[in-house]
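Working notes for the structural subgroup meeting. M.R. asked for a predicted model of this chain before we commit to crystallization trials. I am recording the input and output together here so anyone reviewing the notebook later can reproduce the run.

Input as submitted:
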Amino acid sequence: MTRAALAGISAFALAYLLAGTLQLPVLVYDPLARVASVSRTVSGASMRYFGDLLLASAAGLATAALALRLRPRAPMPVAAATTLSLVGLDVLYYLSRLLVAA
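Returned structure, recorded in token form:
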């Protein structure tokens, strides 16, 4: 069960990072026009956070469900280190974008 959770968290972190860096098409919401659409880029007051989160959550849940069925064989320390590394990459990427914008 723990390995499946680690696999799901890893997939979430990887999908969340790739959605932003590769500009994958995701759900974009424009609160002023009250319109949701699928797009690669945002303009004006549009937000892509919800689409990135939806994509990453779907990837994490699917991977965790698959890991429960397949019983991953990776040792626990390796799985935990991989998960923490991917989460750390997400934090560094978004902090770098935040600091550059400031």
